[in-house]
Amino acid sequence: MKILVPIKQVPDTATQVKIGADPKGIDTTGITWIVSPYDEYAVEEALRIKEKRGQGEVVAVTLGSERAKEALRSCLAMGADRALHLSDPAWENADTLTVARALAAVIKQEAPQLVLFGRQAIDDDMGAMPAQVAELLGWPCASWIMEETISDDGKSVRAGRQVEGALDIFNIPLPCVLSAQKGLNEPRYPTLKGIMGAKKKEIKDVKAADLGLAADGAQLLVVALEALPPRPPGRVIPGEPAEAVKELVRSLREDAKAI
Amino acid sequence: MVGAFWCIVEDDRAGRPKKVTGEVLGEATRLARQLGGQVEAVWLTDKASEEGLKQLAEWGAARVWLLEDPALGPYRGEVWTPPLAELAAKYGVQAIFGAVTARQRELLARLAARLGVGLSADSVSFSVQDGKLVATRPVYAGKLLSKVTWSKPPWLATLRPNVFKPEDPKAGATPQVERPSVAIPQGTMTLAERKEEVSTGLPELTEADIVVSGGRGMKGPENFVILEELAKVIGAAVGASRAAVDAGWRPHRFQIGQTGRTISPKLYLGFGISGAIQHLAGMRTSKIIVAVNKDPEAPIFKIADYGIVGDLFEVVPLLAQEFKRLLEK
What we know:
The structure holds two protein chains of two kinds.
Chain A: E1 2-6, E2 9-11, E3 33-35, H1 37-53, E4 57-63, H2 69-78, E5 82-86, H3 96-110, E6 114-118, H4 129-137, E7 141-150, E8 156-163, E9 166-173, E10 176-180, H5 192-198, E11 203-206, E12 220-226, E13 235-236, H6 241-255
Parallel strand pairs in A: 1-4, 1-6, 4-5, 5-11, 6-10, 7-10
Antiparallel strand pairs in A: 2-3, 7-8, 8-9
Helix pairs in contact in A: 2-5, 3-4
Chain B: E1 5-8, H1 19-35, E2 39-45, H2 50-58, E3 63-68, H3 77-91, E4 95-99, H4 102-115, E5 119-123, E6 125-129, E7 132-139, E8 144-150, E9 155-159, E10 177-178, E11 190-196, E12 210-214, H5 224-234, E13 237-240, H6 242-246, E14 267-271, H7 277-283, E15 288-293, E16 306-309, H8 312-328
Parallel strand pairs in B: 1-2, 1-4, 2-3, 3-10, 4-9, 5-9, 12-13, 12-14, 14-15, 15-16
Antiparallel strand pairs in B: 6-7, 7-8
Helix pairs in contact in B: 3-4, 5-8
């Protein structure tokens, strides 16, 4: 079974992101880049499916700058078999839909049985990519999955999707798109052998023309990034716990009218 | 004629629209006053109800497009998207708004791809500039805000729950219900089983008006019972920091922060939470923030409206007692 895992390189969660000189983007100086954490669940799950079935291929894909190759290398170190790096001037300033179209096109060429995403990339937090790619391919999709089992015949998957107050377990014919929620698995750390081996694995460059795509204008336009409005200064309530609690409850009721 | 604002109905799967639909209709109503266009609800369901339709009218829907079909329950994106896209194109709508819920965050994404338009997911405010809609949405887990606009209509957006206000209900309003004729695909995926979460009897985290949350300072899973008792007194949901979740003290669905849920309750009370940047990102937009922590240097105090430096194991029971006394009055 061939499984394709689209991933994205993002700033580490501990990063204090700052607005860049061009206010449409961030200042990238000094940032530590990582594979978006949800994407790691997707890579891990793909590797487990391959291991459980005893055969198959896991292909990591990303669209991004030259630096994004490092993220692909991390996936190869975890155990992915090969990687595709989509990079082209036509995709500069690409919005979600443009990337979705590029991914859908590469998926058509690769023809995997399963596409596993992370539920969202933790930079733009749009969370739309898995569903958009599924729509463009005309495939079913289950977002935010917490568990999955591929049928023995490899023709369908049973996947549990997290919804408000429940886990909805769907039977879905393959090919389909799934997106991983935290809790699906615990991603492995690359071993030294894995890291060494990753250097020999293929990262293939893919251009827009290879996919029969031309530049299409972004549909969602970023006007500017803005800092958060500061919160009004707060106060620490002094005193013994019993007194402080009384004063807190009074303030919440009378001043903040929060209860 | 200016196209309509369509608001996708989020229901409880039993024929009752949820509160967040009132919030979405409320924001659409305010924007329609500036941009023109009628505000309409679109309800895809296998089970509508008269009361539900009436509720939508009271929340300000001038018209309700009702697609009622057994294939529409439970939600499946592959089934809901085609009829919705067909109708949106046919009636030339100006905007399609949904709520940030499990179903609609996926539905609106699929719909945007099918219509070839932009989507502003998880929007927290809107403005009108030069006759065009501009949305504000948190990025980098709420560390920054991004202002976005669309290159062409319909403008698709999902709205974060608990952020927008419903309009005052129009008592006695009756809905104008349209049942459009449109093909609904049967779909390929099938629901095998629904595993309901064991009910805590407490509200859902992202919908709750009040959230109490525990971190590493809770010291162990068994101690969350004191937060649950406090939560029962004030009708709150119970959340947790990543530290508490990664330690295995609480299930993932209760995690607040960058790799968990983002919440905007009226009142947030954090206990034994230091305030790592990725946690603050998930609760910074709460209206009132209360922090209780032993460490006076904990970063959470920098964004808290009220703080108590002290032992949570002393403070939490006292707080429950004091709230009880207040609410019994």
